[in-house]
Amino acid sequence: MTKALFAASLAAATLLAGCAQEPAETPLDGAWVLDGDRSQVAFVTVKAGQVAEVHHFGSLSGSVSPDGVAQLDIDLASVETNVDIRNERMRDILFQVADFPEAQVTISLDPAQFADLSVGEATTTSVEATLDLHGVSNAMPADLVVTRIGDDLVKVETAQPLVVAAGSYGLAEGVAELATIANLDSITAQVPVTASLVFSREAAD
Questions:
Q1: Which of 138 and 28 is assigned the larger pLDDT?
Q2: Lowest CB count within 10 Å: 26, 82, 94, 172, which one?
């Protein structure tokens, strides 16, 4: 074997050995944090049986750990209904934020499902989401659309609204009281909720 060929073979072997020792980072490796400014959780209420209104929460935080445990924290005091007195009533009467300041959603994801996701690609995954609200924790099925929107950005959206029943979280009495105060015949106690969440990858230490 000539010296030039031997040198080329040695270089190739060294490169392959290095790749084997340090595998390339897959698109969703690492830990991720929620970009609250680009994320939203919204819900719809129906009053008097026919008037639908869209509301949202202004303050969200969350993260996804390297092993796929995703957590979303919702500041209930940040509820925004576009009516100041209604915001106050929702905070104090319905959510009772003095005692229950946050709602929390926890999901376990399989990072391997997203290992080959390239920028612009999306995939849908079915998960079990656990919602901790007003001192009550319940699990519910959810379909999520995960889109890699940048090298270090991922968007997670609900494929369809999740229906949260007020009675399942000890909120039925609060809903009834809100209806009475507003002189309404009814406020629907089952609420569709949607989420659009953007996570950014934390820089490695």
A1: 138
A2: 82
